[in-house]
């Protein structure tokens, strides 16, 4: 049996055997909060345990209907909508499935495997986000155990995902009886989960790089979304960025910005040389208490937006009552606007989509993008070295000529 | 390459140099006036000029709201406003430059992902808004006794300072426990407050004159072993001896829990709820700051246990933390003993964890973590209180989660009286009326306990008065009433005098 201290092959070690037959188990995962940035980990983890792909069921996107139909009367406190909405997701997995779910897996993610780890103090999840499952569970247990009443096992592992070395034990402690797993199986499955997540993140970053390279080649603007991972949920972020995309502006999300060395050196190299920052992912110049993973990433994304020429506009999304976002409102805006990048905040997002006001604001944003993008691109281009790694040889020369002319 | 753009950078405090110590006053706050008075003594002891910010008022809420981003929790707004109003007054009286030169502000930092660790961002924004960006602000990490000197070396957050502050907090807790157990029963109104003031002033002197024996480990050993502080508390006990109390007054015991700042605070910041509860005929169990420090001390054990698979030195590290914890609790108990064991014991952190575990995971950090659930159950199951009043700021991130989990607790323990009070700072009537509804039931329970104790023991008020005449020590504030299985003091008093066995 493989020991914890044993070195593992990068391609993944063979699965421990014999493995229990879990092909008939159906596992439901509420698609909420930081599951939005770790979903592929869960897919990889469960598949490695022998759960069939079709038996890994994520709940639907958040919607008011979902909350009304499945979560009504289950709320225990008034808090931000991304947490409050989880009741609907739990309810949907319990009551809304044609084919019955056997296990609900709702992780309490304490820390995140952020790309900024090592460059910041900590990469912790928001206190509400990590504790959300305990809060929501209470609404399904206060009168009777609704999970048990419906023949469902409830599993909520506490996970320090920023520390992969402790995750197998954390998984094992929670799941040993529910899935009948041993520690070696957990180790293997956790490894598979991280591998899957890394591969997915790379694919997404490569896709963002392609978009940004296209913008650089065509000298066209793109828009960066600064939000938390769950703002990708159409019921939480209300697809504001899609409305803007419909006007022809490419959208990139900060979570999947490319972090390749060549690009990072181009954007932050001068500041590193001048010892203003230690690395491209260092945010100590703009933020002192770098404990919260998503907050750290938002502030870093704001820095990129302030410098990368073809990001000419930032959409800041924030949910009503978000205590993590609250202290960042002004710093983020100041960071983004320092070099003239446009900044538009959609704050206090809640359950209802304010479609009318969003449409009016989108029109305003489109107007500003059309009017000022060229100026913003040129203003920021002259602040950077001429050799943009997103451009090929001839294009680089053209860009350099353009910068010099300016 | 053009360099015309000045990218945004966050606040960086200008240096506070050693030479400026004699002329610069360190401002601080966030605790009760008693704790702050003793902490002031610690600063003075190390030749710093220091001053607590004035106690929080409603006007601070307005001042804070004006200058920081919307959506902040009320402790952030109140504490920011408090600093703002103090500086405004100073600027008006002494001018901007003198204010910038004469003061620095020291505040607690780091609390993982909770907004508490980011309060300084709001302070900085407020300073910027006031045109005082050059005002100096420093952070005191809660989990490091020995930090690097702050820029300029004017403020050294080292062992002498950190240990002094911790010991001041423990002594402040002792005073607070004595105060809240005495005042509701005092025969001569106002006497407790007078003695409290005298005691705090006396202990201020004690901390100001603290001998500094050793630098690091030597100093730590001296703090644990010396009788210096216990002797001082014996003097305080004598002061409390003089207060006459009547413990036959039937009052429900209300345990206060909640977000750290709100539960600790005594003032407009939490609608003066502790004093209000006393005025409404209750006895309040105040939350000792020492429980929070105990939590900070104990949690590394849980983290280390998780790492046992990958760290072979875990056992030694855990043993070291446990040793430190024993010394800490031992010191607290020595202080209690010096006051006749009247102040309450610290709850066992493992027990709090185990009680909370079915409802709230003990590793969930931020705010008080699982402790709010654990403390409510601890008080209820051990019959230490008739009711738990949990004070949470509106939009508090961690507290709303454990409050939600309390729905599950109440489902399992429907007899637990629990009043979660959301505090915004400007909705006093709403909050107090909500509390009063549950308080009414707590009063009934205290009365039932008293009636039951009288019936079980066959005691009468006349009999008890006769016993008191024969044993005048019973009427002293420092006479300890043992816990006899009831929550309220009057019922325990009756049982104690009757020599009855503890109620089940």
Question: Would you kindly provide a written description of the structure presented here, covering whatever features stand out?
Answer:
The complex is a heterodimer of chains A (406) and B (504). By secondary structure, chain A is α/β, with parallel strands linked by helices. Chain A has two domains: 27-199, no CATH class; 205-405, 3-Layer(aba) Sandwich (Rossmann fold). Chain A has 15 helices and ten strands. Chain A has helices at residues 35-48, 64-71, 81-84, 86-95, 127-139, 146-149, 167-179, 183-218, 234-237, 240-245, 261-273, 293-307, 329-337, 355-381, 393-405, and strands at residues 27-29, 56-58, 103-105, 108-111, 153-155, 158-160, 222-226, 251-253, 311-319, 342-349. A four-stranded parallel β-sheet of chain A has the order 2-1-3-5, sandwiched between helices. In chain A, strands 8-7-9-10 form a four-stranded parallel β-sheet. In chain A, β1 (27-29), α1 and β2 (56-58) form a beta-alpha-beta unit. In chain A, α2 (64-71) crosses α4 (86-95) and α12 runs parallel beside α13 (329-337). The longest helix of chain A has 36 residues, at 183-218. The N and C termini of chain A lie far apart (65 Å). By secondary structure, chain B is α/β, with parallel strands linked by helices. Among the domains of chain B are: 18-157, Rossmann fold, CATH 3.40.50; 247-287 and 344-504, no CATH class. Chain B is built from 19 helices and eight strands. Chain B has helices at 33-45, 58-67, 74-94, 96-102, 119-130, 159-182, 191-208, 217-225, 228-241, 260-264, 273-279, 289-306, 314-338, 349-356, 371-381, 397-412, 428-457, 461-470, 489-498; strands at residues 25-28, 49-52, 103-109, 136-141, 253-258, 283-285, 387-393, 418-423. In chain B, strands 2-1-3-4 form a four-stranded parallel β-sheet, with helices on both faces. Chain B has a four-stranded parallel β-sheet with strand order 6-5-7-8, with helices on both faces. In chain B, α1 links the parallel β1 (25-28) and β2. In chain B, α1 packs antiparallel against α6 and α9 (228-241) runs parallel beside α13 (314-338). Chain B is globular, with a radius of gyration of 24 Å. The model of chain B has no long low-confidence stretch (mean pLDDT 92). Chains A and B meet through α5, α12 and α13 of A and α5 and α16 of B.
């Amino acid at each position: 049996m493989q020991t914890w201290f044993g070195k593992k092959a990068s391609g993944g070690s063979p699965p421990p055997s014999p493995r229990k037959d879990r092909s008939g188990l159906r596992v439901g995962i509420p698609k909420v909060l930081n599951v939005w940035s770790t979903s592929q980990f869960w897919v990889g983890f469960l598949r490695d345990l022998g759960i069939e792909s079709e038996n890994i069921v994520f709940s639907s996107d958040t919607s008011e209907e979902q909350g009304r139909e499945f979560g009504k009367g289950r709320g225990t406190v008034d808090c931000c909508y991304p947490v409050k909405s989880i009741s609907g997701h739990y309810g949907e997995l319990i009551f809304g499935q044609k084919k019955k779910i056997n296990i609900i897996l709702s992780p309490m993610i304490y820390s995140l495997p952020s790309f900024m780890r090592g460059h910041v103090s900590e990469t912790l999840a928001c206190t509400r986000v990590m504790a959300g499952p305990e809060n929501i569970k209470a609404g399904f247990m206060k009168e009777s155990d609704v999970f048990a009443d419906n023949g469902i096992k409830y599993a909520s592992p506490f996970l320090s995902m920023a520390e992969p070395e402790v995750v197998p034990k954390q998984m094992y402690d929670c799941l040993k009886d529910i899935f009948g797993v041993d520690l070696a199986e957990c180790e293997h499955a956790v490894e598979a989960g991280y591998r899957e997540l890394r591969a997915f993140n790379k694919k997404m970053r490569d896709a963002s790089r392609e978009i940004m390279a296209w913008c650089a080649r065509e000298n066209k603007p793109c828009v960066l979304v600064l939000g938390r991972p769950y703002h990708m949920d159409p019921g939480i972020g209300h697809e504001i960025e899609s409305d803007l995309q419909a006007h022809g502006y490419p959208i990139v999300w900060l979570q999947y910005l490319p972090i390749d060395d060549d690009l990072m050196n181009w954007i932050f190299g001068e500041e590193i040389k001048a010892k203003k920052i230690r690395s491209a992912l260092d945010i100590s110049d703009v933020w002192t208490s770098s404990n919260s993973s998503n907050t750290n990433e938002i502030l870093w994304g704001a820095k990129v937006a302030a410098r990368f020429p073809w990001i000419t506009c930032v959409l800041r999304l924030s949910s009503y009552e978000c205590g993590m976002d609250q202290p960042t409102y002004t710093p983020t805006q100041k960071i983004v606007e320092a070099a003239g990048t446009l900044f538009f905040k959609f704050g206090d997002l809640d359950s209802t989509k304010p479609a009318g006001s969003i449409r009016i604001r989108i029109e305003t944003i489109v107007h500003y993008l059309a009017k000022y993008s060229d100026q913003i691109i040129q203003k920021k281009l002259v602040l950077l070295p001429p050799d943009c790694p997103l451009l090929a040889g001839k294009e680089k020369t053209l860009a350099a000529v353009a910068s010099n002319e300016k | 390459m053009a360099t015309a753009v000045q990218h945004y950078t966050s606040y960086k405090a200008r240096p506070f140099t050693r030479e400026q110590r004699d002329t610069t006053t360190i401002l601080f706050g966030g605790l009760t006036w008693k704790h702050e008075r003793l902490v002031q003594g610690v600063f003075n002891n190390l030749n710093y000029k220091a001053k607590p910010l004035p106690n929080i008022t409603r006007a601070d809420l307005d001042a804070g709201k004006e200058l920081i981003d919307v959506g902040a929790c009320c402790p952030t707004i109140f504490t920011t406003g408090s600093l703002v109003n103090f500086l405004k007054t100073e600027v008006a009286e002494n001018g901007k430059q003198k204010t910038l030169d004469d003061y620095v502000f020291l505040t607690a930092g780091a609390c993982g992902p909770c907004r508490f660790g980011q309060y300084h961002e709001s302070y900085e924004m407020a300073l910027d808004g006031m045109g005082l960006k050059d005002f100096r602000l420093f952070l005191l990490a809660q989990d490091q006794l020995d930090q690097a000197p702050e820029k300029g070396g004017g403020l050294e957050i080292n062992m002498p300072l950190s240990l002094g502050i911790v010991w001041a907090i423990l002594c402040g807790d002792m005073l607070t426990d004595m105060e809240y157990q005495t005042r509701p029963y005092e025969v001569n109104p106002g006497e407790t407050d007078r003695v409290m003031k005298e005691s705090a002033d006396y202990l201020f002197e004690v901390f100001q004159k603290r001998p500094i024996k050793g630098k690091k480990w030597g100093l730590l050993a001296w703090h644990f072993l010396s009788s210096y502080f216990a002797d001082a508390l014996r003097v305080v006990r004598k002061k409390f001896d003089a207060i006459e109390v009547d413990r036959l007054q039937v009052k429900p015991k209300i345990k206060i829990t909640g977000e750290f700042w709100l539960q600790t605070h005594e003032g407009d910041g939490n609608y003066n709820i502790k004093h209000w509860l006393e005025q409404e005929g209750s006895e309040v169990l105040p939350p000792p700051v020492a429980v929070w420090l105990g939590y900070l001390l104990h949690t590394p054990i849980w983290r280390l246990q998780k790492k046992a698979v990958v760290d072979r030195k875990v056992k030694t590290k855990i043993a070291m933390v446990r040793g430190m914890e024993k010394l800490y609790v031992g010191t607290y108990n020595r202080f209690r003993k010096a006051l006749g064991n009247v102040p309450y014991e610290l709850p066992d952190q493992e027990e709090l964890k185990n009680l909370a575990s079915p409802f709230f995971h003990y590793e969930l950090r931020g705010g008080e973590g699982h402790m709010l659930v654990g403390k409510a159950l601890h008080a209820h199951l051990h019959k230490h209180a008739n009711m738990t009043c949990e004070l949470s700021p509106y939009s508090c991130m961690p507290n709303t989660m454990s409050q939600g989990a309390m729905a599950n607790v109440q489902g399992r323990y429907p007899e637990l009286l629990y009043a979660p009070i959301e505090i915004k700072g400007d909705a006093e009537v709403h909050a107090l009326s909500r509390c009063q509804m549950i308080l009414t039931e707590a009063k009934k329970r205290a009365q039932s306990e008293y009636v039951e104790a009288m019936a079980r023991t066959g005691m009468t008020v006349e009999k008890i008065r006769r016993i008191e005449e024969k044993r005048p020590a019973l009427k002293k504030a420092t006479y300890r009433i043992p816990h006899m299985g009831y929550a309220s003091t009057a019922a325990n008093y009756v049982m104690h005098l009757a020599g009855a066995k503890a109620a089940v």
